[in-house]
Structure formats: structure tokens, C-alpha cells
Write a structure and sequence with these properties.
Layout lengths: L10 H27 L4 H32 L6 H15 L1
């Protein structure tokens, strides 16, 4: 299970979580390749492909969040109001 990142997580913690998430996607890609090699049914392939796409979209959102936190806020304390605004921006990005 992938841990949900918190805005208050450090850059090192976020990076570790993103690397773990990427490893999960790589495992899914290896499974997809094996499915295709073994003539797995189309429904299984379609479901796994959708899962991979959603997982990658989640990683993309986390990467954007980390970029915003590192580049715009750097080491300053993030107020609850700023946390809320960032959450709203990321929610729009996810749509």
C-alpha cells in the first residue's frame, strides 16, 4: 500500500515515497509484459493498463506537489491556509 504524502513531509520523505511508487509501476509494467507474452485475456490486460495509467497519474501529481513545495515554499513554514490552497490546486490538476 502506498503511503499518502502529507504536505508537511520532508523532501527526502517525498522522494523516497516517489521512488517506492515508481518501483510499483515498474512491477506493473513487467506484469503487463508477461500478460502480453502469455496471451492473457484482453480484459485482464485492459484492467492492468488502466491501473498503470492511474498509478502514473498519481505519481505525476505527487511530483508536481513536490516541485511546488520545493520551488515555491522552499523551507518556509506552510500555513494551513496555504496547505488548503495547494490541496485545491492539486485537486484541479487531478481532474
Amino acid at each position: 500500500m502506498v503511503k499518502v504524502m502529507k504536505i508537511t513531509d520532508s523532501m527526502k520523505e517525498r522522494r523516497k515515497q516517489n521512488i517506492d511508487h515508481l518501483a510499483k509501476i515498474q512491477g506493473q509494467m513487467a506484469t503487463l509484459s508477461a500478460y502480453m507474452d502469455s496471451d492473457k485475456c484482453c480484459m485482464d490486460i485492459a484492467m492492468l493498463t488502466t491501473s498503470i495509467a492511474k498509478s502514473f497519474d498519481s505519481l505525476r501529481t505527487k511530483t508536481l506537489e513536490g516541485f511546488i513545495l520545493n520551488e515555491l515554499f522552499d523551507s518556509e513554514k506552510i500555513t494551513p491556509a496555504k496547505q488548503e490552497k495547494l490541496s485545491r490546486i492539486l485537486d484541479l490538476y487531478k481532474k
